[in-house]
UniProtKB/TrEMBL annotation:
Enzymatic reactions: a 2'-deoxyribonucleoside 5'-diphosphate + ATP = a 2'-deoxyribonucleoside 5'-triphosphate + ADP; a ribonucleoside 5'-diphosphate + ATP = a ribonucleoside 5'-triphosphate + ADP
Cellular-component GO terms for this entry: mitochondrial intermembrane space; mitochondrial matrix
Membrane-topology annotation of the record: Peripheral membrane protein
Organism superkingdom: Eukaryota
Organism: Coturnix japonica
Chief localisation class: mitochondrion
InterPro entries according to UniProt: NDK-like_dom, NDK-like_dom_sf, Nucleoside_diP_kinase, Nucleoside_diP_kinase_AS
Protein's recorded name: Nucleoside diphosphate kinase
Length: 172
């Protein structure tokens, strides 16, 4: 599992509400070579969209140094969800999962680890009223992220950009 996935898996554990503090100031992005940057798919599920938590999720990632490189609001269809959750299709809860994921719009995002791959990136937990329905999904490994990003985004939807004030904030 990549460091980004480990971080997200630790930070998005269900049943532990609260915000964890970051380890240092937020950073700008772009100093790590592209081959060292990890990306992850983040899904803000229907409950979180309805509770207007999208901005909170984005802010938590940005405060930990992640860079948003793609985002869209959509109503997921069965075909897309069947691809994404292929490993869960035989589980008894799969019909309920499909009903939940199609109950309203969701926000799909791709976040990049930016300029400090491999470092700790804790993120606060976001849970739904039910322990069985978390409100944010993040890929659990580099390999899974590559596959999942391919389900939700076309390559030309990922935006490469540099933070405009990085040299003023962090030096050349």
């Amino acid at each position: 599992m990549g460091s980004l996935g480990r971080c997200l898996a630790r930070g998005l554990l269900r049943g532990q509400p609260g915000i964890r503090r970051s380890f240092g100031p937020p950073r700008c992005y772009g100093s790590a070579p592209p081959e060292l940057r990890e990306q992850t798919l983040v899904l803000v599920k229907p409950d979180a969209v309805q509770r207007r938590l999208v901005g909170d999720v984005i802010g938590r990632f940005e405060r930990r140094g992640f860079k948003l490189v793609a985002m869209k609001l959509l109503q997921a269809d069965r075909g897309l969800l069947d691809q994404h959750y292929q490993h869960l299709q035989q589980k008894p809860f799969y019909p309920a999962l499909l009903a939940y994921m199609t109950s309203g719009p969701l926000v799909a995002m791709v976040s990049s680890s930016g300029d400090h791959p491999g470092g700790p990136h804790p993120i606060g937990e976001l849970t739904a009223p039910s322990l069985h329905r978390n409100v944010v999904h993040a890929s659990d490994s580099v390999e899974t992220a590559l596959k999942e990003i391919g389900f939700w985004f076309q390559r030309d939807e990922l935006v490469a950009w540099e933070c405009g004030d990085s040299q003023y904030t962090y030096g050349p």
